[in-house]
Every structure is written in structure tokens, then in C-alpha cells.
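It is worth pausing here to work through a concrete case rather than discussing structure prediction in the abstract. The textbook approach is simple: state the sequence, then state the predicted structure, then interpret. We follow exactly that order.
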Amino acid sequence: MADPIEIEAPDDTGSGVVRRFEYQIHIAVQAVLEMLAGGSVIHVTCEHIEDIVVARGGDPRCVDGGAFWDFQQIKMPWSPGRSPT
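Step two, the predicted structure:
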């Protein structure tokens, strides 16, 4: 059998998928870093119900003192000349 590294891929669709998820990863990592730094983020969930769910503690929008659940649907920022795919 030939070395799989030496075999040309039949297509390059995976690269486009990774580029679309890269922005979503950056947004999620920002929330995780805030959580690790002791910020108001107490929980981050990815790819469950929404793209990212960020729970924040001590948020003034929660009158009962519970967590504020921020359900985020992440889309890549658009720039002129870039294909939407």
C-alpha cells in the first residue's frame, strides 16, 4: 500500500469547512479564556443547541442571581471579495 501522505486527496472540501469553523473557534476561545482568567463566564458549551452557549454568573439581567445563558449563533464576518463558501 502506498503511503497515505503521498496520495493526492480526491478533493479539498475539508479546507473550506475548517475556514468556516475557524471564526467560531476564536469566539469560543475568548469566552473560555475569560472563564479561566476568573471573569464572569462560568460555563462554555460548543455545538449543543446553538453554536456556542456562554453562561455568565452575577449578571444584572438575572434578578434571582442565577446564570445568564447567552445562546450564540456564530457566522463568519463578511468582507468584500471573499466567497461565502
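Step three, interpretation. The mean pLDDT is 83. The longest strand covers residues 41-48.
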